[in-house]
Amino acid sequence: MDWLNRMNRAIDMMEKRMEAPFDIGEIARAAYCSAFHFQRMFHMLTGMTVAEYTRKRRLTLAAQELAISGSRVVDIALKFGYESPESFSKAFRKLHGISPSEARSPGASLKAFPRISFHLSLKGDQGMEYRIVEKPEFSIIGKLVQVTTKNGENYRIVPKLWDTWNADGTSDKLLALGKDKDLLGVCLDMEHQKEQFNYMIAVEASADTPVDNEFTIRTIPASTWAVFTSVGSLPNAIQDVLGQIFQDWFPSTGYEHSGGPEIEVYPIGDIRSDSYRCEVWIPIIKK
What we know:
By secondary structure, the chain is of the alpha+beta class. The protein folds into 2 domains: 103 residues, Homeodomain-like (Arc Repressor Mutant, subunit A, Orthogonal Bundle), CATH 1.10.10.60; 157 residues, Regulatory factor, effector binding domain (Multidrug-efflux Transporter 1 Regulator Bmrr, Chain A), CATH 3.20.80.10. The protein is built from 9 helices and 9 strands. Strands 1, 2, 3, 4, 5, 6, 7, 8 and 9 form a 9-stranded antiparallel sheet that branches. A hairpin with a 4-residue loop joins β3 and β4. α1 runs antiparallel to α2. The longest helix has 19 residues. It is globular. 28% of the residues are buried.
């Protein structure tokens, strides 16, 4: 229950500061975790980033103020963190479907995005298979693509990337470079405030792996990893496991996300099979 109270305390702090920029590090400290872990937990628990949630809440509060007050649009825009009436109007129309001025019309239809709160959900009927692994620094080689997390787009984009890479021969080329090592899907360079990260299809590289200008080489730092097994058809099975890790496993353990890359390990096999087994590697540190 402690983690539940801490997350709700952090939300309370965010809500009190909707009318001014806030320090995500200070919000995370209210939840007794790092800024990175708080933002990653928030995204996995709610399906949206802290930035996206804050944006929707501010536009909800702005709409309420427009409807009941005579304050100028420019003043309300500045109050809720927008640098100009133009940027405010664009964001407002995107959420509410009407302009700020139209929001003042009697009977105007507005969208209310309520504040969230975290509640206890009695689950745990299915165990999670995992192990703790210490792994030294290693290199990977592969193709890197920047992916947005806005509106959960990453869950749609990444499976499509794999379809493309499997169809255009990228997967086969990497398997040859890695001498038939498992294919990796790597999430790295996570920028929660910008709502984006880099995703790589890769294989582990060795000293004699030939350099190919088509691909990028990155170094994965030495880490302690929690390794989870996913069983089932992709992408649903591995997305379900990721959800379990952040919704069930992290809150019930003394670990938090270290902020390093996350790795998916895909052995050769039928990824549409209900018995397909792959792994998720999450870098962890003790709280």
